Amino acid sequence: MVAHIKTIAFQGVEALPIDVQVHLAPGQNAFTVVGLPDKSVAESRERVRAALSAMGLALPYDRITINLSPADLPKEGSHYDMPIALGLLVAMGVLPQDHVSDFYVMGELGLDGACIGVPGALPTAMAALELGLGLICPEQCGPEAAWSGLAAPDKPGILAAGHLLDVLNHLRGTKLLLPPKTQRQTGIAQHPDMADVRGQPQARLALEVAASGGHNLLMNGPPGAGKSMLAARLPGLLPELQSQERLEISVIESLSSPRGGIRLADQRPFRAPHHSASMAALIGGGRQAKPGEISLAHCGVLFLDELPEFSRQALDALRQPIETGRVEVARAEAHVAYNADFQLIAAMNPCRCGHAGDPDLACHRLPICRQEYLSKVSGPLFDRFDIRIDVPPVALSSMLSEEKGEPSSAIMERVAAAQKRQYQRQDCLNVRLDGDRLRELASPDTAGQKLLDAIIEDGRMTARGFNRVLRVARTLADLQARELSSAADIATALTWRGVSLS
């Protein structure tokens, strides 16, 4: 007899069906797992053996073969423990096959039979729901899986157990498990408020425009000018997450969580990796092709402080995801795609010492120091920043002033109104406008067109730069609820691109 248990393997955010086949045959005692298992899967035989022993069940003195089909797909992770254990129980006659045929099974086992949480419960539950199946998983993963809707009364259901014996008792009808309940995140720290920012009127406006249109922003200024402080406040200006965005963020978090048990996202992510991060950590990859920081920042903000200190290879790898909102991770054993629709905010100093604009503090190596520092960031990446501003130091008198700036809540209302206009007009933010639609929907008024024509004739801008100026100007007009971009909007957008108007 061959027992069959359904489980999954992950390729990116996709859950692929796996058939765990368990065969018992007379012969020399052996326990073999085949089907391209990695080390953690191959070691499951010892965890399963100990877990069944803790329940008072001994494995038969037979040749045990576990096949993970399809056999040519690499299998990774400890979530194969529970499928293998249940398959053995079916093969041994402890459980009927039809009791487990309608379930996906996932979970790691402790040596005492405890069910331990694993990553990927949410995408697994979504895959089970699509196929009309239920899900057996560790108790820790139950609330996470319930966000898929699989635990609804009219759905197959979720069996979330703390121990393998609880699963066995439920399937045999001796002690039923209660369905898990969804849990929202509680006690989440709020994003810092813009009211704490003193001075910096241009930076405040640039941050509001960036939030409204989804534009990438680069801030250049000396140490202590407030660049990191401003960047940390951007998520607080963005509108609340939509249902689809919550789900997409949570799926990526589920795959990245070591033990699962995440709660549905309530806030936009803000990721700020250290400049020593490798390309695999930033873009995604590694042996298991895990999501990187740009995917963990999906629908949120990726902040790169000290931009030139990141490796050039890692920075250049950002160029394609910035344009497409997705990242393709290609490895010898896997080719996966992750969502990576993030807003890039970066900060840098004017030179290595940080004081290129101050003759009293600047080092003696200027201008070579500045040239070497800026050359670490490639021109094509610079070109992908829609807004590039200088952030000067704040005067001490402004820092000591008791007068607070405008709060984030007031700015967020304007940002939400501007984004609503964009979605009603074109069903996307201005940063995603391109081609004929960009020319049609972001065309300026007569005075603005004259200003653009003059810049184009001088050849002072690339085609990509021209498009980005149109997008930023369109966002400035949306904040003022104007139909067309004005000459002032075009001039501001050109200034933020570093194009001289003289």
3D architecture notes:
Helix 19 (446-457) runs parallel beside helix 21. Helix content is 37%, strand content 17%. The protein is α/β, with parallel strands linked by helices. The strands form six sheets. It has a five-stranded parallel beta sheet. Strands 1-2-4-3 form a four-stranded mixed beta sheet. The chain folds into three domains: 2-172, 2-Layer Sandwich (Ribosomal Protein S5, domain 2), CATH 3.30.230; 194-394 and 405-413, P-loop containing nucleotide triphosphate hydrolases (Rossmann fold, 3-Layer(aba) Sandwich); 433-502, no CATH class. The longest helix is centred in the C-terminal third of the chain and has 19 residues, at 408-426. Strand 12 and strand 13 form a beta hairpin. The chain contains 21 helices and 18 strands. The N and C termini lie far apart (84 Å).
Give a summary of the structure in a few sentences:
By secondary structure, this protein is an alpha/beta fold.
